Amino acid sequence: MLLKFRPYLRRLLRIKLQYKPLFPTKFCRILTLRTGLPCTVGFSILTLIGLEKKLNAEDELIIMIKHSLLFMQRNEYDKAEQLLHVALRQAQQMHHDLGVTYIYDLMANLALQRERLEQAKKLFVSVAQRLISSGVPQDDLRIVQVSVKLARVSHLQKEYETAQLGFDWCLERINNEYLRNPSDEIKKLLAMTEDWYGRLFVECKKYENGFNYMLSAYNKMKELSDVDPEHIAVQLNDIGTVCDQMDRVDDCILYVSKALDLGKTLPDMEDLGAIYVNLGRAYMKKRMVDSARQYCGYGLRLAILNKNNDIKHEAAECIAEIKNIVV
Length: 327
Known about the structure:
- Helices cover 76% and strands 0% of the residues.
- By secondary structure, the protein is mainly α.
C-alpha cells in the first residue's frame, strides 16, 4: 500500500528551478526591460506615436525568444519549438554567437521538458562545447548548470552510474561557489541539483540518501521568493512518499499534511486531489479508517470536479481498500 510518486506533479519543477540564462548581464537586462510591456504593443502603438524606436534585428530576436519562453510556460511546446527554430535562423544570420548558444540552451530545456532525452543530450553537449570554445572555463557555473541537466538526462535514461558521477562533480563545484557567494541564483541551482540527485537515489531504492537530498532542496526552495508555492507543496508531498517507502508513516503524514495545508491555499492547484489521496493512504496504513475515508473521499470529489481520471481512479481504489479493511 505504498504511496505513489506523481510525474505529472513533479514536472512542474523543471522550468522554475532552472539556473539563470547564459546571456551576459547586458543582454539579460535588455530582455527584462523589453518585456515590461506586451510584445504586441512594442510592434504597434508605441512605434506609431513615436515613443518607441523602430525595432532592430536584436530587438526582434529578443521578442521571439520571450514569446517562446511564454509558450514553454504555458506548455504550448509545439509553438515554442517552431518559434525557437525561427529565432535560431535569425541569430545565425546575424552571426550572434551568444544568441545562438542561448537558443540551443532553450531548445535543450524544451527537449528535456518533453522527455526527448537523446535530443536534449545532444543539444546540451552542443551548448557546453560552444561555451568552452568561447573561452568559458570548464568549472564555470554556466558549464556546471549544463552538466547538471546532462546528469538528469542520464538518470532518466537509467544510466545511473553516469548520472551519479555527474551529480557528484556538479555538487562539489556548486557548493564551493555557494560558500563564496551565497546568492539566490546559486541557491536555486543547488536546490535543483539536490532535488534531482535525491530522486535518483530514490529510484535506486536508496531512500535515506534520497530523503536527505530532497529535504535539503526543500529547505532551500522555501527561502527563494520566485519559487511557486505549488512547487513547494509538490516537494513536501514527494518527501512524504519517500518517508512512506522507509515505513516512517508518522513522518509521511507530517509532510503530506504540510503539502495539503499549503495546497488548499492555492485555488488553481488542480492536482490537490492527489495529495488528499496520499494522506488518506497514509492514514490507512495506520488503520485510522475514518481519517483515511475522509481524505480519500475529498480526493475523489476534487478529481471528479477537475475531471482528472487518474486521481479519480486512485481515490476510488483507495476507498475500495478501506472498505476491505472494515470488512
